[in-house]
């Protein structure tokens, strides 16, 4: 999994598997993080990767770039994201009401423990 972390000075790609930063992209002082994310993604081999981003990164172009690079994504969605939030909320309401019939999905759970904690 590759997690993209945004700071006011730049965006970093963190590999949870290897526990290290894979790449960083500085944010221009006259710009914002949204412009740095596509540049950072160009530096990465996304094939088979799962990329996570906060709500700032929930952009159509960013999702398309990840998919075209062979990766998958987990994007955060907030209520202030125009038409997208109500559409997704409606989709889930219908899926739940229909007991997920006709919808292909999978579920995975991984429980890790260390230092006597789950």
Distance between the termini: 20 Å
User: What is the SS-derived class?
Assistant: alpha/beta
Quantity of strands, as a count: 5
Characterize the overall form. globular
Overall pLDDT score? 88
Radius of gyration: 17 Å
Strand composition percent: 15-25%
Task: Count up the helices.
Answer: 3
What proportion of the residues is helical, as a percent range?
25-40%
Spell the H/E element sequence.
EEEHEHEH
Sum up the structure in keywords:
five-stranded mixed β-sheet; alpha/beta
Question: What can you tell me about this protein's structure?
Answer:
This is Transposase IS4-like domain-containing protein. This protein is α/β, with parallel strands linked by helices. The protein has a domain at 2-78. Helix content is 28%, strand content 23%. It is built from three helices and five strands. The protein has helices at 33-42, 60-68, 84-97, and strands spanning 2-7, 10-15, 20-26, 50-53, 72-75. A hairpin with a 2-residue loop joins strand 1 (2-7) and strand 2 (10-15). The relative contact order is 0.12. The model has no long low-confidence stretch (mean pLDDT 88).
What's the SSE blueprint?
Layout: E1 2-7, E2 10-15, E3 20-26, H1 33-42, E4 50-53, H2 60-68, E5 72-75, H3 84-97
Parallel strand pairs: 1-4, 4-5
Antiparallel strand pairs: 1-2, 2-3
Give a concise summary.
The chain has a domain at 2-78. It is built from three helices and five strands. The chain has helices at 33-42, 60-68, 84-97; strands at 2-7, 10-15, 20-26, 50-53, 72-75.
């Amino acid at each position: 999994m590759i997690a993209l972390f945004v700071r006011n000075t730049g965006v970093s790609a963190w590999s949870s598997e290897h526990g290290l930063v894979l790449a960083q992209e500085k944010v221009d002082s006259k710009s914002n993080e949204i412009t740095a994310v596509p540049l950072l993604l160009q530096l990465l081999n996304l094939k088979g990767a799962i990329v996570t981003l906060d709500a700032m990164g929930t952009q159509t172009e960013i999702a398309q770039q990840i998919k075209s690079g062979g990766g998958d994504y987990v994007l955060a969605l907030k209520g202030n994201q125009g038409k997208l939030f109500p559409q997704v909320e409606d989709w889930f309401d219908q899926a739940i009401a229909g007991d997920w019939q006709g919808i292909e999905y999978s579920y995975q759970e991984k429980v890790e423990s260390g230092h006597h904690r789950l």
